[in-house]
From TrEMBL:
Transmembrane segments: none annotated. Urate binds at residues 64-65, 166, 183, 232-233, 259. One of its GO terms (biological process) is purine nucleobase catabolic process. Keywords: Oxidoreductase, Peroxisome, Purine metabolism. Pathway: Purine metabolism; urate degradation; (S)-allantoin from urate: step 1/3. This is Uricase. Signal peptide: none annotated.
Amino acid sequence: MTNTSNSTYVKQASYGKTMVKFMKKDVCPETKIHTVYEMDIQSMLSGELDESYTKADNTIVVPTDTQKNTIYVFAKNNDVSVLEVFAAKLAKHFVDRYQHIHGAAVDITLTPWARMNVQGKPHNHSFIRDPSETRKTHVAFTEGKGFDVVSSLKDVLVLKSTGSAFNKFHKCEFTTLPEVDDRIFSTSIDCNYTFNQFSTIDELSSYDFNYTYTSAKEITLDTFALDDSASVQATMYKMADQIINKFPAVAEVFYGLPNKHYFEINLTPFDIDNHGDKCSLYQPQAYPSGYITCTVARK
């Protein structure tokens, strides 16, 4: 049945394929050293698609299965070692290939496999799953406008057992939290960094995204470890500020840091002092959890 409504319209429409997974093996011809890349990809297309919804016109629908196959072919024929560049090439292909498609967004999640150390040295073709981080990117290409890129470091669970305080905070009749000069600071790092728009694929391809990722991770972990933290807010601002000042191509940085609480266990019923600087035994507190976010942008 054709939709003939005069009272509604398609405000936004996009569609695509999600959870397209593959592992690619690269072998260096000289050294015979293997490198593996396991990826989870989503592609989303937008453009002149209204009538596929309002008039059931499938002639303008590029099947999601076609998108899946395109991802596989591009993965076989292209270097995938830089997520952002691979995603950009895919997005641009979809827009260039189909006249009625004017925008494409590609999201990639990299599964981290670290090279295994065997008998004291890195093994040529054996790997161990590294659960300590997740690397992602989101690349959107819009016809006539260029590439918008947001990359991220996620799921990095960190803890330090001193060097963090929280005091002199606002208090009211509902405040029960005591001030602390020394506490355990633990969080799962979620960091997104947004680049200035890239005008062309050549400009984007020449940028060193892998170095930016490695440096953003290093700045994040170094600051977490070394900062004499007055609060999660103060520490996360220092992280973002350093990334923006180091990389002119980065326009803004987002952090989301949930507070993984560890509270003192009360041992006073047993005449044991486990409070303040005498505390060495803590109770992990799964919930409720503090959640602090901040987006720092270039002026």
